[in-house]
Amino acid sequence: MIQERDFKTGEVTLRIVDADKAPLNYSLWQISYDKKDGATGGKFTFKNKETGLGIIFDHKTAYGKDKIATTATSADLKASILEGCNVEWSWFSSNVDNTQKLANEILYANFHDSDKYIVLKKSSRTAANQYGLNIVGTQVVAAVYTAAEAGNKATSCEALTLTPVVAESVVLNAKDINRMIDAQKDGAAGFNFMTPTGIGNRTAMSPEDNSTLDTYKYIAVEDETIVNALLAKAAASLTTEQKESIEIAFKLTDNYYDQWANNKTGGDWNNGQSRETLTDVEEAYKNYEKSKSSTSLQDRLTSAYNLAVALLADYTEYYPDQAKIDIDGWLDAKGEKLVSDSRLDASNYLVSTLTELLKIDGLAGQSAYQKQAEMASRFPIRLQAQIDADPAKNDKYLMVDTARWEEATENPSNSPELYLANKKPDMKNGLYVDARFNFRLTYFPD
Between the CA of residue 99 and those of 96, 102, 124, 163, what are the distances in Å? Predict the structure, then answer.
């Protein structure tokens, strides 16, 4: 559940959205509990991280039973505006710590001068507010009932139930970062760093414009330059012919395992016996299947090779005479037609083929570039310095430079800080230099 501000009217309402669509700060709540005697459920108050506003409604402005029936789970009503006098809510019936998880409890409030209950309910309206966060999700309304209508602890009026979830650290995307400030839409003026107390307030951060870390605003942008460049290098590590040979080898590995696992081909090979070589095949096959999700062809070929070796060992150990007999169903060397061959000869061929493929020079390079690309994808953010009034001219980004900060009077031992700068990434100095423009920003809610 999030709070949503209408940027046109300033009104704030509640909305239920999918977790992966929820703007970070709008979905964070500080929950306070005021009862310390342990005798009752006490009162809960809520404060939204983004707006600083609580869950606040008034029974005089909440929808009545004439607008939303007691038994209805929702109604076609406009979201209730957060305003009024009630900020304290009953939620869980005990403040005693126990082993039960706090989940799916009704939030309600009753008034000391009346027999009325106020609860939260879903509206059937889900359309996005173009003047708000522009996110589709169920709007929330406040509804008021008499105590008799609401039932004990408001359990008879189909009220909204809520579950508290402890907020953990989260890696921010560009949209999260740019929307950290209330009433600031995507692509707005940007954000500032706090006035630095270390490297940033020295003579200058960037000799090019004599700026310090807090001189300019920044806008976070998603960047895949480094990832795409590494993937391109990975793709160029192998020839087309080599890639085709590797793919055929995978087809053969799948086919040869199926031959072993299929008892109908003759011989009871996969018969559930506890022999060691059978167990080795089963374990190697699990690893081979797992490797299919890897982007490293070297890792996949190694797993295929281990499976081929295990198959050959089982044929040799378990029933060698039977394994010398030709059977149908083997894929040929091109992976196109089914041919006849013996289990021993077919398995020896597969081991030999995979052994040669693992010797390809570019294989290790392909694997290394793929793994580097995977690592680079974890650092997807660049911080664009808003130096020029014309956004199209802003082509400089914050980077951790290759040099330490070294003034004329200081040596590296006295000046261990890294050098920060606003520069233009141009790929002229290589991927490892341009990777210094990319950041991974983690938010730790407090």
Answer: 10, 9, 35, 16
Query: What digits encode the pLDDT tens for the residues 28-47?
Result: 999 998 865 555 567 899 99
CA of residue 422 relative to chain centroid, distance: 29
Whether 284 and 291 have beta carbons less than 8 Å apart is answered as no
**Of 139, 136, 147, 143, the residue nearest 158 (C-alpha):** 143
Strand partners, 218: 191, 385
Assign residue 171 a region: left if phi > 0, alpha if psi is -120 to 50, beta otherwise?
beta
Task: Mark out the alpha helices in 12-79 (DSSP H runs).
Answer: none
d(CA 127, CA 120) in angstroms, rounded, equals 19
Q: 170-184: buried (b, 16+ CB within 10 Å) or exposed (e) per residue?
A: eebebebbbbbebee
Tokens of 6: 């209408």
* Spatial contact of 308 and 256, defined as CB atoms under 8 Å apart: yes
- Find all residues with CB under 8 Å of 368, minimum gap 6, and list them: none
3-state secondary structure of 385: strand
Closest CA to 380 of 153, 197, 224, 274: 224
Rounded CA-CA distance 68/47 in Å is 27
Which residue do the tokens 């974890």 mark?
A: 378
Chain centroid offset of residue 125 CA: 28
Strand, coil or helix: what is 5? strand
Q: Which residue has the tokens 């200058």?
A: 204
Phi, psi of 85 (to 5 degrees): -115, -15
Examine the pLDDT at 200 and tell me if it is beyond 90.
no
pLDDT one-digit tens code per residue, 425-442: 887 877 888 888 999 988
Q: Which amino acid is residue 404, in one-letter code?
A: R
Q: Identify residue 92 by its one-letter amino acid code.
A: F
35: Cβ–Cβ under 8 A, 6 or more apart, which residues?
41, 42, 43, 95
Measured in residues, the chain has a length of 446
pTM over cut 0.70:
no
3-state SS of 178-236?
Answer: HCCCCCCCCCCCCECCCCCCCHHHCCCCECCCCECCCCCCEEEEECCHHHHHHHHHHHH
Q: Distance between CA atoms of 245 and 272, rounded to whole angstroms? A: 33
**Paired tokens of 231:** 């993937």
For helices 225-236 and 361-376, the axis angle rounded to 10 degrees is 170
**H or E stretch covering 15:** strand 12-16
Tokens of 101: 């998880």
